[in-house]
Amino acid sequence: MKSNLSKMPVYAPITPGEPMEAIGQRIQRFATARAEHPALISEQSVVNWEALLNQTNKVANHLREAGLQHGDAVAALSENSTNYVALYLGVLTAGGCMVPLSGMASAEALNLMLSDCGAQFLFVSQKNRDLLQSLRPGLKALANNRIVSLDENGEGIGQTLGDWLGNASSEAHPADVSPDDAFNIIYSSGTTGTPKGILHDYRFRQRQMERMSRYGLDGEAVNLVSTPLYSNTTLVSVLPTLFHGGTLVIMAKFDARRFLELAETHRVTHAMLVPVQYQRILSDTEFDRFDLSSFKLKLCTSAPLRPEVIADAMARWPGNLREVYGLTEGGISTSLDCAAHPSKWSSVGIPTEGAEVRVIDEDGQELPSGETGELVGRAISMMRGYVNQPEQTQEMLWESPGGQVFYRSGDMGRIDEDGFIHILDRRKDMIISGGFNIYAVDLEKALLDHPAVEDAAVIGIPSDQWGETPLGLVILKPGQKNSGPELLQWANERLGKSQRISAIELREELPRSTIGKILKRELRAPYWQPFKR
Fold first, then answer.
1. Among 15, 105, 118, 239, whose CB has the most other CB atoms within 10 angstroms?
2. Number of C-alpha atoms within 13 angstroms, CB side, residue 188?
3. Beta-strand pair 38-41/46-48
4. Distance from CA of residue 8 to its chain's centroid?
């Protein structure tokens, strides 16, 4: 695998002589420098840095004894746990490439991912035992003795992690790695064909870890982790905390009340959350009784945070709030300091250090400030490409007139007169009705302004007259009795003629990914299915 990955092009700017200390090498020092300092806190245990390093080294040493070669892929299918973190660090310490997989994916998609990355080992939690059974018939290249349970119970999976490690040495023998070596592969959530495997090298991750440490994600951080480790959203905050010897408080599954309890108990300083989590935490009826004074910074990513939610968080939740916008692929990187720019809460901020964002039209021509088009970006952290999919990688690229490579975001947006980036919609979610481009976010904002509306999504559905037309899907706040026609009239009175919503349907819930994104593809499917051949 290493030879194939090493041939993939480098799109990030290269700095000759750039210092690099791999995470697998760096964390060895914490065993002596802060041996008793808590590294991981879960519902079940507290693991100090000495214990974490011992387990990390055992994993690394036994992986190599069992045949792992430099650059080989190791996959995991698990919820967050202390064992999962130790495995992640162990794979990197051994010189392997970590491939975290989502338990929300289908067995068919997971088999494609495992084959695509050439995984040499698979570690599975008991929660995913049944999913593993669906996978096994397709795991022809992965022997049973290379499938290991991450939990104490190995029933239906194989050896437990403890039995598999046996008497493995805990001596430190971290692998030598280069900036070009594979760090991890993050798979997209595609539903057809082989999902895209996004390859991050050590250059990508080290630069990202150093940048995020400037937000306080360092050795003094107590970072509450409530999003899954297979998501890049999570890794953006988890890795720098580990890299600098801080503390992770780990939630296997998010719950708003439990989040508040853990934050108070462990004097949490940082958290990376997605918009729906902010909404659920702030709406908890007991929110204001919790002591959250230890918070220094809260981060938000995966989707823009509504200005009214930012206002609520800034008023009631101690510490600053910083919104982060970027792609798992890298390239685009912006940040909004909410305390410093209260008039810009409708934006996702300005490009971070070393990043550049531009706007292009459908023909790939650059647009001036203020005009709407697709956002493209270039930054210090950029993926090496999609594994085994060079054509898809090429489709992602846009070359500037000066010959620099930018990544296409698929997001429609604009840059205002002060250089702040505003996101309007995913390009594929944009509604084209009667020849007019309609951005769902504008319609959703109108609906969300209604005091009875808890949540809303707008999608394009087929229309004989207009080609497609906007449909509003609305969740009402508890106790509200407003009808669809009432909401429709209210919203359309506040929208332009070309933006009018055709109808509103009331829903009990909206489908979301595990990191809180509304799955518009699922919402659209029933309306467009009759038109598919």
1. 239
2. 18
3. antiparallel
4. 23
In a domain, 180, yes or no: yes
Beta-carbon contacts of residue 313 (< 8 Å; ≥ 6 apart): 278, 282, 298, 321
Distance of CA 460 to the CA centre of its chain: 26
- Examine the fold and report which residue of 253, 285, 312 is the final residue of a domain before the chain moves on: 253
Residue 78 lies in a domain: yes
Phi and psi torsions of 162, nearest 5°: -60, -45
Q: Flag whether 482 is in a domain.
A: yes
Distance between CA atoms of 202 and 135, rounded to whole angstroms? 30
**pTM of the predicted model over 0.70:** yes
Cβ neighbours for 402, distance < 8 A, ≥ 6 positions apart: none
pLDDT (tens place) for every residue of the chain, 533 residues total:
444 676 789 999 998 888 889 999 999 988 889 999 999 999 999 999 999 999 999 999 999 999 999 999 999 999 999 999 999 999 999 999 999 999 888 888 899 999 999 999 999 999 999 999 999 998 988 988 999 999 998 999 999 999 999 999 999 999 999 999 999 999 986 444 678 999 999 999 999 999 999 999 999 999 999 999 999 999 999 999 999 999 999 999 999 999 999 999 999 999 999 988 998 999 999 999 999 999 999 999 988 888 999 999 999 999 999 999 999 999 999 999 999 999 999 999 999 999 999 999 999 999 999 999 999 999 999 999 999 999 999 999 999 999 999 999 999 999 999 999 999 888 888 888 877 788 888 899 999 999 999 999 999 998 888 888 999 999 999 999 888 899 999 999 998 888 899 999 999 999 988 778 888 889 998 998 765 43
What DSSP designation does 61 have?
A: H
Containing structural domain, residue 132: 21-253
Token pair in block for residue 335: 């940040």
